[in-house]
Design a protein that fits this description.
- The protein has 305 residues and is an all-alpha fold.
- The chain has one domain.
- The protein has helices spanning 2-36, 41-63, 72-95, 98-105, 108-119, 126-143, 153-174, 180-200, 209-234, 237-244, 247-259, 265-301.
- Helix 1 crosses helix 3 and helix 4 (98-105) runs parallel beside helix 12 (265-301).
- Its main location: membrane.
- InterPro entries: EamA_dom, EmrE-like.
């Protein structure tokens, strides 16, 4: 009885963590939009990282995370590309309809699949390539190039997804040597000074409620990252990925309620197509991972030839 209940309990806990993480990321997007009314994207990114690091330190110190690493140059490269992705994503959230900016961010796993082939040499077979192509059709439905609904700003959101995919590959490489908390710590240590450089050229001191928005962006962003990481440790990515799409209705409703944004049916359709493609890719990756875990002990037990 206990043996069968334990996996179910682990999944429910993972699903709960993923749901709260998704809510945190949605709230971060909403607060970014509020802050973008009066502050530059560069300054918002800097304070997101500064307040995020402050929120992160007690968690890492309490957990006794190891800070030893031999990969500092890789962390610098990962953080530099990550800042580019962050600036593009924050600009999109601040200037595009919220639902469109978030829907396009869901294209990241499509680019991760391509990047994994290029940089990690992973094998992707026909069915996953078909899912990637279908996912890009969803992106085209949202962006609608060549129509009156096309906005050049949507390309910045797509660029954010591309850079985020490259960062995901770099995290995979870093995680082969360093634990997750070490990766998160050094990412923030580099993010703060790197994001300060462009912020200096657009600096205006925040006032009043702006400080609250900036602090909340840092707390929601860091909290979302930590919960997301822990959810994936407990649960199967194929089962948890659909939960992350709950962010879209949250931000779409917030856009309607606070920013007088209509809910574009093209964005909903494109997001649904991307969702289906991502769900299949996550399912295939989880299945292949389980197969590898099953066959690895058998291969290891074979005598050397």
């Amino acid at each position: 009885m206990t043996a069968t209940a334990t996996p179910q309990h682990r999944f429910l806990r993972a699903a709960g963590l993923m749901l709260v993480s998704t809510l945190f990321f949605g709230l971060m997007a909403i607060t970014i939009r509020f802050a973008s009314r009066t502050l530059s994207t560069y300054e918002i990114a800097f304070f997101r990282n500064a307040f995020g690091l402050l929120a992160l330190l007690p968690v890492l110190l309490h957990g006794g995370a190891s800070l030893r690493t031999r990969q500092l140059p890789r962390y610098l490269l990962r953080s530099t590309i990550g800042i580019g992705s962050m600036l593009c994503a924050f600009w999109a959230i601040g200037h595009l309809p919220l639902s469109q900016a978030i829907a396009l961010s869901y294209s990241t796993p499509l680019f991760v699949t391509i990047a994994a082939v290029i940089w990690l040499g992973e094998t992707v077979r026909k069915r996953r390539w078909a899912a990637v192509i279908i996912g890009f059709i969803g992106v085209l439905v949202i962006v609608r190039p060549g129509t009156s609904g096309f906005s050049h700003g949507s390309l910045i959101a797509v660029l954010a997804a591309v850079l985020s995919a490259i960062v995901a590959i770099q995290i995979k490489q870093l995680s082969r040597v360093d634990p997750a908390d070490t990766i998160v710590f050094y990412t923030y240590v580099f993010w703060v000074p790197l994001s300060l450089i462009p912020a200096v050229f657009a600096w205006t001191w925040p006032h009043g409620i702006e400080w609250a928005w900036l602090a909340l962006i840092g707390v929601f962003g860091t909290g979302g990252q930590l919960l997301w990481t822990r959810a994936l440790r407990l649960g199967d990515v194929s089962a948890l990925t659909p939960i992350s799409f709950m962010q879209l209705p949250v931000v779409a409703f917030a856009g309607y309620l606070f920013f007088d944004e209509g809910i574009d049916h093209w964005t909903i359709l494109g997001a649904a197509i991307i969702f289906c493609a991502n769900a299949y890719i996550a399912h295939r990756e989880a299945k292949l991972s389980r197969q590898h875990a099953t066959t690895a002990p058998v291969e290891a037990a074979k005598p050397a030839e």
